[in-house]
Task: inverse folding
């Protein structure tokens, strides 16, 4: 499944790109629904390129059908991302800690100027391989990612206001 998420932020595009590569932002994401506090595992800087590894753990509710094939306690993953700050582009791969052969997610997002701020456009490719419930799990994950990205946008705006 492929999907796109677009968000408008009332923030400077370059500051926004730098915020997504800043470990302090991920600490501010504590308390968002459906995921526990992100854990920054690694950050490497090579000029305008920042490599970041962040672990997330699912903290939401799953349907009975999903729980029949997926243990919510084992839903954790590492977001491996490459932030090109000069292009304001991020490429990412989500690597599950469990169910690795059954889940693939990768994508890219871009931060582009717009009047009054910027727009983050995320293009995501997601695949879940579970007999009978795979498509439903994909849709649930896609919905959760959309919600998370929307919640994240408000935190980014607040984070940038607080760090000016």
Result:
């Amino acid at each position: 499944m492929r999907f796109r998420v677009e968000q408008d932020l009332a923030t400077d595009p370059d500051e926004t790109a730098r915020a997504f590569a800043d470990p302090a932002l991920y600490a501010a994401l504590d308390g968002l629904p459906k995921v526990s506090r992100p854990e920054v595992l690694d950050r490497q800087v090579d000029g305008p390129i920042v490599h970041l590894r962040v672990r997330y753990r699912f903290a939401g509710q799953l349907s009975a059908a999903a729980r029949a094939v997926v243990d919510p306690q084992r839903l954790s993953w590492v977001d491996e991302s490459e932030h090109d700050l000069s292009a304001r582009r991020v490429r990412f791969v989500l690597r599950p800690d469990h169910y690795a052969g059954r889940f693939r997610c990768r994508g890219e997002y871009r931060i582009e100027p717009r009047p009054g701020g910027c727009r983050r456009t995320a293009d995501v490719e997601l695949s879940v391989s579970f007999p009978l419930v795979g498509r439903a799990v994909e849709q649930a994950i896609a919905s959760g990612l959309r919600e998370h990205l929307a919640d994240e946008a408000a935190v980014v705006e607040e984070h940038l206001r607080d760090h000016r």
